[in-house]
Amino acid sequence: MVVTEDSFWKIKNLSDMNQTEWESLCDGCGRCCLHKLEDIDSGEIYYTNVACRLLDTTICKCTDYGKRMQMVSDCIQLNANDRDNFKWLPGSCAYRRIAEGKNLQWWHPLVSGDPDTVHQAGISVRGKTVSETQIDESRMEDHVITWITADIG
Ligand code: SF4
Ligand code: SF4
């Protein structure tokens, strides 16, 4: 794709995108598939390096995308009209960036034309996680990371 001033993500609201455009906004980083903790007093969200059991951490893809909502009860299905769920997304996430009026970054596959740039730029979680099946979930706090935040990309 050649990026122009009228590339769809620059001129359309999320709610106006067709299904193909909507799906293509996902950069494949896998960040949203990590467990998060919320401080109940401040509302601040902390990411951990603990991945959902369905995440293939080598390619950062869900291994059962079609049935994910049945398989994982707290898997979030993004909806353009449900912005409350966007606060959980990392600041790098294209859905959140577009919702906030920001542009996509150079490494986004729609901009670079290369699905690997999200990995090359160190944005994806590839090689940086541990599966929820391999940890003691009562010790989730021990897995908090600082290289992803919900506020900055
Ligand atoms: S954080 Fe956003 S861009 Fe990254 S995998 Fe999740 S939905 Fe896609
Ligand atoms: S079910 Fe799939 S899409 Fe949902 S959090 Fe787990 S790996 Fe990610």
Describe the structure.
With 153 residues, this protein is α+β, with helices and mostly antiparallel strands. It has one domain (8-143). Helices cover 18% and strands 12% of the residues. It is built from six helices and five strands; from the N terminus they run H-H-E-E-E-E-H-H-H-H-E. The strands form two sheets. A three-stranded mixed sheet has the order 1-2-5, with no helix packed on it. A two-stranded antiparallel sheet has the order 3-4. A hairpin with a 6-residue loop joins strand 1 (34-38) and strand 2 (45-51). The model has no long low-confidence stretch (mean pLDDT 92). It binds iron/sulfur cluster (2 copies).
Regarding quaternary structure, what we see is single chain
Terminal CA distance: 24 Å
Query: Which strand order does the major sheet show?
Result: 1-2-5
Written as H for each helix and E for each strand, in order along the chain, the element string is HHEEEEHHHHE
* Total domains: 1
The helix content is 10-25%
Number of β-strand runs: 5
Average of the residue pLDDT scores: 92
Beta-strand residue fraction: 5-15%
